[in-house]
Amino acid sequence: MEDTKQLILQTQESYYAYIKQVASGCKTIVDLLNDGDIGNAMLALSHLSEGLVWLTNVEKLMEHHSFKIESDVQKAERLYQSIIHALETKNYEVVAEILETELHPLFVELDQLRFEEIIN
Fold it and tell me: Which of 40, 49, 102, 118 is the most exposed place for a label (fewest CB within 10 A)?
């Protein structure tokens, strides 16, 4: 039981650290796009996509262990779908705008949130 509690706490700490990385990563991707480094921007966007899936999975796992966070990772996933659509038309300006004005501020806000134990 103690091992499970420790693993839960470590997972939560990893979640918080990743939220910070996403916020700064959005800025990095915007810089890459603005510099015309599309290849590295696409690589970073693929990492972002994987990260959003991981964050969602952590939230579900934490809920299974009676922890809840009032995040809006689903909104981030919806924004990422808008990014995908803009990428399909190679509209990198729209991608940068979504990252800078919507996704980055969202993750700055999410950085303030913490998991809370659900007491039944």
Answer: 118
CA distance readout (Å), 25 to 7, 40, 43, 47, 55: 26, 12, 12, 10, 15
Alpha-carbon dihedral sign for residues 85, 76, 59, 24: positive
Instruction: Tell me the whole-structure pTM to 2 decimals.
Output: 0.89
Instruction: Specify if 56 maps to a domain.
Output: yes
Range of the domain at 9: 2-114
Q: What is the pLDDT of residue 116?
A: 96
The ranges of the chain with pLDDT < 50 are: none
